[in-house]
Amino acid sequence: MINGRKILVVLPAYNAEKTLEQTYYEIPMDVVDDVLLVDDYSADSTAARAKELNIRTYVHDQNYGYGRNQKTCYREAIKADADIVIMLHPDYQYTPKLITAMGSMIAFDVYDAVLGSRIIGGGALRGGMPLYKYISNRFLTAVQNLLLGSKLSEFHTGYRAFSRDLLVNLPLDLNSDGFVFDNEMLAQILFFGYRIGEISCPTSYFEEASSINFRNSVIYGLGVLATSVKFRLQKMGWGRFGIFSKVGTSAVPNYYQEV
User: Fold this and answer.
1) Domain ranges, ordered by start, for the chain
2) Residue-level pLDDT at 87
3) Quick check: 96 and 158 in contact, CB under 8 A?
4) Are 107 and 3 in contact (CB under 8 A)?
């Protein structure tokens, strides 16, 4: 706990067998109360390895996508009465050592959401981020800041912390099941006036670290731009879109099970 708030770390996993143990053992369990992993129907032994590590594990009955994985993570975190939920990729691309700092920023009511930014410290390229991804990251972030009226250093990090109130009230079930879920969620956070903070985070790209391919990157980029345009149109009263409606998460469906 931090300041009396229950901290829960969620691990959205897909083929993370080789990096899961290293990630898990660096989680600061002196402040983290619980850890859960959602396996999106991996082709390797991710779920079995998680069980060996005594991580509470949920497995999808098929590969639904990164967004659906997060939806399951947040549903189960809410059911577990978490006050603060921190999403950490189990591929060891982001260091678990920042969990205490990120959780504290929410536990002491400074922010409602905190992002681990790879850009603030200037180490994204040194950490192995491909140049085309760095350029597209900077371009998309600039466009998004313009359309969403924000000043974030990046919208595309996968290292995030959220308050329970935020997760309960955002219409997350209306978001994509794919990679653009991340950006739809940030757009919703800004649309509904929640406070977002950032912390500098080193990153590491290597063979086992998950990363979307060029084709999916293009699809993601187009989805990001579409989300930003929808945000601006609804703010101007020129459109109405479901993801910016005030509806909380729905009941837990039966497409996954605890193992």
Assistant:
1) 7-248
2) 98
3) no
4) yes
